[in-house]
Amino acid sequence: MNKKTTAELALEIRTLAMKQALREGACALCQCLSSSDALAALFNDVLKFDTIDKPWMPKPYSGVPTKDHEIELGIAVYGEPGPAFDKFFFCPPHYSTALYSALAAVGRLDMDALLMFGKDGTVMSENGEMYSPGFEFASGSLAQMTSQAMGYALARKLNGDTGRVFLYLGDGECDEGQTWEAIQAMYHYGLNNITILVDCNGYQCDASCEEIMKKHDLEGRFKGFGMRTFTVDGTDHAAIAALCNTTPDPHAPTVLLCNTKPWRGFEMLQAREPRFHYIPSFTPEEIACMQELTADK
Amino acid sequence: MNNIAIERNIFDREFVAWAKDKPDVVALSADLTRQCELGGFAATYPERFLSMGIAEQNMLGAAGGLAYAGKLPFVFTYGTFLTRRALEQLQLAIALPNRKVRLISFVCGICSPAGPTHQAIDDVNIMRAIPNMTVVECVDATEVRAFLKMSEDIEGPIYVRMGRGALPKLFPDAPVWGKSRVLTEGSDIVVASASICTQEAMRAVAALTAKGLSVHHVHVASYRPFDDEALMTAIANSKYGVISMENHLTTGGLGSIIADHMVTRGIGKKLYRLGVEDQYLHAASTHYLMMHETGMNAMALIQKVEEATGQSFGIESQDLDAEIQLDVLGGC
Questions:
Q1: What pLDDT is stored for residue B332 in this prediction?
Q2: Checking CA distances to A85, which of B61, B135, B176, B315 falls within 20 to 30 Å?
Q3: Within an 8 Å CB–CB cutoff, is residue A176 touching chain B?
Q4: Do A152 and B61 touch (CB under 8 A)?
């Protein structure tokens, strides 16, 4: 359903995010920029899902699960689940704009759904919820999805399912102790069906990782827990796709540390150093720049 | 009371038998396997026994993921670790998506000699505030034996305070989910007891009845949902009101549940509460804590009845039936 090159797709993800920023006047834009290349590589060259007839148009928000009410999960965008299809667990819910944009760009989410972003009564939540496009778990509290993904991957292993499990983390999330509890359990159970991508953009909510909580030798930490690790240029689509598609290690999960920048494709934002988490308002110069970058797109 | 049967390791055996033809059932342990009546399952079904290490937060999250993938996870650890250490994971990975997960919680209330780190004296209060959660307690042999079969009909999560080791068989048959069990009928005063308090309450009620008081005594095993019109009617019709007696803080547990229901129905009777007063306890045997530091004993109940009725019954501890010694529940 998607004929774009991976580079074109990455650019479109960034463009859609900037259009949202222009519409709303505020945006978690830098997460979209830093993750755009990895998301493009995953959706274009890695993830295997069911095909769908037409882009998904979400229904209005219908409530949370109770004994009397079942909800439609956000993974409706991936068609029918099946043991041979991949799973993509996208942990940082504040990156929702990036995922929504990617899904729209590859034709799995209706472009008009993007106009509902953050609106009450819709499932297009600012913080992706289990009913939001591309999501199926509550992950608003960081590291929560990592353990759920670990349990899911373990069930796949016990069932003999062939589908792979991909997990996307932010680097700030690696501060959480629960992340490492989950990583140690992945190794204990030999969950080589898991590939983790970490968006190492170097910044978290307040400021840089260096200032807020040092992540000394993050690759060494994963390696020390038994993971097979790679550090890649987070804009190198071919390298990311090749590593994601490589033959699994006989035992270990695979971790890709993707080195990225929060101002990818929008250099002017670098002046906001060190605060890139959420941009509550843009300067006139930034708005003009985004208008130029998104013109005719 | 002296001829009450004691049975050992009931849950361990029941779980092995029940899970035999249920291949989706998996058991998760945080390195407290024998301590949580899981030794039989681990030995019998090693491929379905999932050791999660001393990492409760991940264990609860993983249980949510396993349930989402179609497994039926049973999670085993102590009450404080489930409801304090891993509460957020329990809420977000299990309760919020309404996952079919069974949280098998041990050494609840004062049933641990390991002190306040292991004494879940607030777990009913915490768990009954969680949407989608069913909260029950099984510390009598008949309740433990009935739990697994009863659980089959509940699609959402269940938190169960489970008795371990040697347990008394106080009742003749299985409980009715959601309703209290009527032990004696009466019109002067209602006693609603739960957990290991019931055996002490039975001693007190027998002595009070012999003195001519008409006591309506019920045993409560279901905290949420709590849909017990018969109990509310008994309280409304009682002369002196109701006394709650629980293995829990006197705030937030059974006494508070009863208070909620009385108030919303406009039942204007007095409520007296026995249990652990507003404090943490310390490391000591269950028996010592019951008898000396909480309101969880027969003489405390008799004193409370005297306060409520304004009568003096002249009952001394030597007049009561023999105690059931609970220290066999011990071990860290």
A1: 42
A2: B61
A3: no
A4: no
What is the mean pLDDT for each group of 10 consecutive residues in chain B (332 residues)?
Answer: 81 98 98 96 98 98 98 98 98 98 97 93 98 96 95 96 93 92 98 96 98 98 95 98 98 98 98 97 93 96 98 95 67 43
- How high does pLDDT run on average in chain B? 95
Residue A31: closest CA among A144, A174, A179, A200:
A200
Q: Which residues pair with B191 in a beta bridge?
A: B217, B243
Burial of B126 (0-12, 13-18, 19+ CB in 10 A): buried
Locate A227 and state its tokens: 């993971």
Cross-strand pairs, B166: B8
pLDDT by residue (tens digit) across A215-224? 999 999 999 9
Asked if A146 has any chain B CB less than 8 Å from its own CB, the reply is yes
Q: Minimal Cα–Cα distance from A205 to chain B, Å?
A: 21
Q: Is the ipTM of this complex over 0.90?
A: yes
Q: In the prediction, which pLDDT does A297 show? A: 80
What's the Rg (C-alpha) of chain B?
Answer: 19
A125 — contact with chain B (CB < 8 Å)? no
Beta bridge partners of B75: B28, B103
Q: How far apart are CA B306 and CA A154, in angstroms?
A: 58
Which residues in chain A touch residue B53, judged by CB atoms under 8 angstroms apart?
181, 184-185, 188
The beta-strand segments (E) located in A44-192 are 87-90, 165-170
Please report the residues numbered 182 through 201 in chain A whose beta carbons come closer than 8 angstroms to any beta carbon of chain B: 182, 184-185, 188-189
Q: Which residues on B lie below 8 Å from A194 (Cβ)?
A: none
Contacting residues of A for B224, CB less than 8 Å apart: none
Rounded CA-CA distance B36/B45 in Å is 16
Query: Minimal Cα–Cα distance from A162 to chain B, Å?
Result: 14
Q: How many CB pairs under 8 A join A and B?
A: 110
Q: Which of A65, A67, A151 is closest, CB to CB, to B61?
A: A151
A85, A89, A129, A147: best to mutate for the B interface, most B CBs within 10 A: A147
Instruction: For chain A, state the CA radius of gyration.
Output: 18
pLDDT given at position B2? 56
Spatial neighbors of B132 by CB under 8 A, at least 6 apart, are A65, A66, A67, B95, B96, B98, B156, B157
Structure tokens at A58: 């979400």
pLDDT tens column, B95-149? 999 999 999 999 999 999 899 999 999 999 999 999 999 999 999 999 999 999 9
A228: part of which helix (H) or strand (E)? strand A228-233
Answer whether A138 sits within 8 Å of B58, measured CB to CB. Answer: no
Q: Extract the tokens encoding B127.
A: 């768990």
Tens of pLDDT, residues A102-159? 999 999 999 999 999 999 999 999 999 999 999 999 888 999 999 999 999 999 999 9
Q: How far apart are CA A53 and CA A47, in angstroms?
A: 18
Tokens at B326, concatenated: 């609970």
